[in-house]
Amino acid sequence: WILQGLDLTKLTGTLADVDVRLFCGSCAGLLALSFIQAGRWRWVLNALQGSHSYSGALSNVLIGQFFNQTLPSTIGGDAMRVWLLHDRGMRLSLAFNSVLIDRLLALGALMVLGLCGLPWLVDFDPTYSAAWTVGGAGAVGLTGLACILVLDRLTSSFLRWRPVRALAGLSSDSRCVVIRSTAGLSALVVSLVIHCALALIVY
Q: Most buried in the list 2, 56, 189, 202, measured by CB within 10 Å?
């Protein structure tokens, strides 16, 4: 499926024009971001359940990155991270929530970055259409993330249903990370750094 519809002649020509130094620098930068991401996820894990080693978090992140690149989806790596944690003794729901919270913090940072960039976006698009789209999506997204923090307080009468109990567990675990520890703020700042660095690498 990887080679389906791929023009090998065009690909060969494109690769021949690549600046080797920039390519190697970009690869090194992407690898470095994996080390930073491992630290961010470790903060989340430690806020949820005791102490987790950096080496273990890094190993899981790198394995997840491999599966993200080789499977026809971008969630295969996250599924592997959950499975590896569960295989090492962590409760499945907690392992799942740790990965999801890590992703949600990264998403929240991306929304904050988008909102901070609105003044420049207005200069780029005087019609304000792009600014309204990005601003609206960011505001709705951040509101949704805030709702997750109190979801278990709003759904107590529906806890007899398993999916609702799972969402309530996510809400409680999210508060442990974001409100009851410094991990949430630290992870948010690191996520902003990761997004900016990734944009620079792609540029």
A: 56
Would you give per-residue pLDDT tens digits along the chain (203 residues)?
566 677 778 878 888 888 888 889 999 999 999 999 999 999 999 998 867 889 989 999 999 988 888 777 777 889 999 999 988 888 898 999 999 999 999 999 999 998 888 888 877 877 778 888 888 998 999 899 888 888 887 766 777 787 888 888 889 999 999 888 888 889 999 999 999 999 999 88
Q: What are phi and psi of 181, to 5 degrees?
A: -150, 170
Residues 85/95, Cβ–Cβ less than 8 Å: yes
Contacts of 67 (CB under 8 A, 6+ apart): 76, 77, 79, 80
DSSP code per residue over 146-162? HHHHTHHHH-GGGTTSH
Q: What is the CA radius of gyration of the chain?
A: 20
Rounded CA-CA distance 180/5 in Å is 50
d(CA 100, CA 113): 20
